[in-house]
Amino acid sequence: MVDCGLAVGRAGGRVSCQHQFVYDLDGVRVDMPALIKFENPIRLGKLTKILEIRGAGTYFHWTVFAVSAFILAGVAARPGLSLLGLTCYFGVLLIHEAGHLVAAQRKGCRVQSIEIYPFFGITRFETPWARLDHCVIAWGGVIAQGFVFIPLIAWVVTHGYSKFESLNLIFAVLGFFSLAVAIFNLLPFSPLDGAIAWRIFPELLAKRKRNIPRRPIYR
Questions:
Q1: What are 3-56's pLDDT values in tens digits?
Q2: Which terminus, N or C, of the chain has the lesser number of Cβ atoms within 10 Å?
Q3: Reported pTM
Q4: What is the spatial distance between Cα 175 and Cα 169, in angstroms, rounded to a whole number?
Q5: Strands (E), the chain
């Protein structure tokens, strides 16, 4: 499973939904996109738009549906549990990409879209001006996963698994599996996040050196 951010994308159509708003410096009201908006109607295609997250279209590749249908067809005995497992699995991908989205928007970069494939996801956003900001965006996916897998793993470690198989599946996929995905994504190889994320430390050091005031030299 790999993940990458690209500076190319396209905007999708909107559906009616409640919006939040803020005021700019001139006192003009500016609509803000809702946190989540589901597409209605859903139009199937090579990339099918399912929803928007904070204004960015979220698309699922046709192979996601094909792979899911193949898996569900092969486990007819327990389709409910298999469907839950697939939902959690793609939930890990979506949480990761949403983390990149939030980080990019907080750094002032417009996010064009999120694309989900069977084994990886892509967040398309404008390239930030500062390399440090790019590093922060790269960490966004793993941090978002951490908000989910840390409490789940902590619960299992302290209380153990439950008596319910479906709940244990959630612990396993959104917890331990998500942790493994995060570790893998932080490997320092392209196109994994780690190829950019670990540059944050030399960038922070360079920023600190630039901020150190120089003392005047007197002779």
A1: 655 544 333 332 223 334 444 444 545 456 788 999 999 999 999 999 999 999
A2: C
A3: 0.82
A4: 9
A5: 2-6, 20-23, 29-32, 36-38, 47-53, 56-61, 111-116, 120-125
Q: 66 in the Ramachandran plot: left (φ > 0), alpha (ψ -120 to 50) or beta?
A: alpha
**For residues 186 and 198, what is the distance between their CA atoms, to the nearest angstrom?**
8
Q: Which of 105, 100, 139, 149 is nearest to 122 (CA)?
A: 100
What six digits make up the tokens of 63?
Answer: 């192979």
In whole angstroms, what is the distance from residue 109 CA to residue 140 CA?
13
- Omega within 30 of 0 (cis) for the link into 41: yes
Span 88-99, pLDDT tens digits: 999 999 999 999
CA of 166: how far to CAs of 18, 44, 131, in Å?
Answer: 33, 30, 42
User: Cis before residue 213, ω within 30 degrees of 0?
Assistant: no
Helix orientation angle between 131-159 and 178-185, rounded to the nearest 10 degrees: 150
